[in-house]
Amino acid sequence: MTTSRPARGVARWVIETRQRFKDKSRGSRRDFARSASSAATVKPVIRATPLRKFAAWCVHFYTALGQVCAVAMVVSIFQGDARGFQSAFFWMIVATIIDATDGTFARKVGVKQVLPGFDGRRLDDITDFLTYTFLPLLLLWRAGTLPPGQEAWLIFPLLASAYGFCQTDIKTADGYFLGFPSLWNVVALYIYILGMPTWVNLAIVVVLSILTFVPTRYLYPSQPGPLNRLATILSVVWIAALVPVIMGLAQLDAERVANPSQMSGLRLLAYGTLFYPIFYMVVSFWITLRMGRRGFGHTSHTA
């Protein structure tokens, strides 16, 4: 099978640009490693006392609660109606909150030093793949959000996310994600809430899947930096605004069927919550363009 010249050119550009990100930031990574190493020399050794071991296991149990959320999501998704999808999105939010906070607890307790034989990061990755990728894509299929006969396209984001999760450089040394960070829970939420045409939904899924392979930088809210901190603050407001929207999903569905053109207060609130995804994507692309103009060479903690 032969590959067209434009396709080969696009593939070469993606590979070369990703390599340029790696090569040009190597110096900052060495500096980051040196500073981390020097900090480690003055960092007190954490003693693995019985109480601290118990606390470390509690942190891992807290992370594992994301798996419980995943089970609840499966049951809710296969319920197959608005109430079921409402419950599934609720558990997605709970899983996201757990994922956003367990790392802080782990660092406070020092789980890596206290329980070196248990890999909490692997547990976290398994849970994240379920709750951020696999189950949201399952919901998109169960809810019939794609054109009839086009459901197989959901394999594309599934494999793209698997690629992203396995990339060693998916989290950069200067506090970003590299490539679209598999936020399929957010994508599924808005595809369902907004009730857009199914071909628009398919286009969104395909484009975001492609962006997984493109080495653009995305905000990593739990990392240091003013923009990341702003993203964290805005995410709290965003989740608070989403709660009544999710609780009213059955009402939203009924309104779309009864009067698609009417804008109720709940529908306006649903559209208003788009402020955070728009902020996240616009700022992330701006960071990529800014660093591109600098030749990807300036990689300080400015996020």
Task: Explain what the structure shows.
Helix 3 runs antiparallel to helix 4. The chain is mostly helical and 303 residues long. Strands 1-2 form a two-stranded antiparallel ribbon. The C terminus is likely disordered. It is built from 13 helices and 2 strands; from the N terminus they run αααααααβααβαααα. The radius of gyration is 21 Å and the shape is globular. The chain starts with a helix and ends in a 10-residue tail after the last helix. The longest helix is centred in the N-terminal third of the chain and has 30 residues. It has a domain of 80 residues. The chain is 72% helix and 2% strand.
Count the beta strands: 2
- Give the class from helix and strand content and strand pairing: mainly alpha
Please bin the fraction of helical residues. Answer: over 70%
- Gross morphology is globular
What distance lies between the first and last C-alpha atoms, to the nearest angstrom? Answer: 43 Å
Figure out the total of helices. Answer: 13
What Rg do the Cα atoms give? 21 Å
Q: What topology, given as strand order, has the largest sheet?
A: 1-2
In the predicted model, the low-confidence regions spanning at least 5 consecutive residues are 24-41, 296-302
Main sheet properties: 2 strands, antiparallel
| Strand coverage percent | under 5%
Overall mean pLDDT score? 83
